[in-house]
Amino acid sequence: FVRLGGAPWVVLPLVTAFLAMLPFWSFALWCRRNDASVAALVFAAFPLLLPMEWTMITSMPRGFVHGLAVLACLPWIKLVSGSILRGALFGLVVSFAVVNNPNALIAGIAAGIVWWKLEHRSLKWISGILVGAIPAIGWQWWASHFFDDRPWEVIHRLTPAELAFDLSLFWQALRSPSVFFRGLFPFHAELGILILVPLIILAVVLWKRGDRTYALALTMVFVGTVIALGVIKVHNGCSSIFFPLSRMFLALPLIFAAALAYVLRNAKLRSGNVIAIAILAVLLVGWKAAWLPATIKHELASQECAFVREEPISMITERCKRIEMAAD
Question: How far apart (Å, rounded) are the C-alpha atoms in residues 65 and 144?
Fold first, then answer.
């Protein structure tokens, strides 16, 4: 796209936003293909409900979303024949997603719990996963050794020490958890902590319905998320959307959408509901567009805590012109 004349500062955010939307669209198409229209609508509409801060976080080309984008392949594995082959493909997709960005891990675990039931707890499927994960493990091993020999080329290093659990950081996070989930819940960025509430509610609903495997998956997401608050790496960030702590939990909106879609999978889609949702979506998009300039201005003025600083393109262009003039 850049070679075709597109400006990098336009093309890169567009491609990144596409990657962020890809799993929602993929699952929506799968649901529509299987005549679950309401579930498809949930997946398709959910990103529109999320606040502008989520849109900004997931459109920055910083590697926050490419792991989750890989998970878009998951539903289409069901088209493959053979439990071992499906397991291998599942292991391949999830392992590469986690290697790309570990924030996809919690979604991969939840999907694995659900899929194990769909495969009737098949040991062949489990063995397939182990085989499928080999390429990603091999790639990670090769990349680690490659950069061990070239430390000057490493920009961001993830060390085992950063993956350790720190009890003091855990209690610190529990005292002020909102900053870790900023922008992840529909309508308003500061309501992000509420993303955990519907997970528990939906888990209870599914348990009472007898869908205990799905309830277990959501419970594991909740427990895993809470435990992750004590991981040192999870605290590597701040409240700024340019270096957000919530980037570690970007899988939660997708998991929420998936759980809601599953609960509503047998609901009948009525024209009145479609019209109401369409009107709501248009209003939300308009509202987000109206507040976009103010949100950008606020976030640009509130990034002192971020290690990477963002500036308007016009300012960068002007500075580059000054440097060019001085060089001449």
Answer: 21
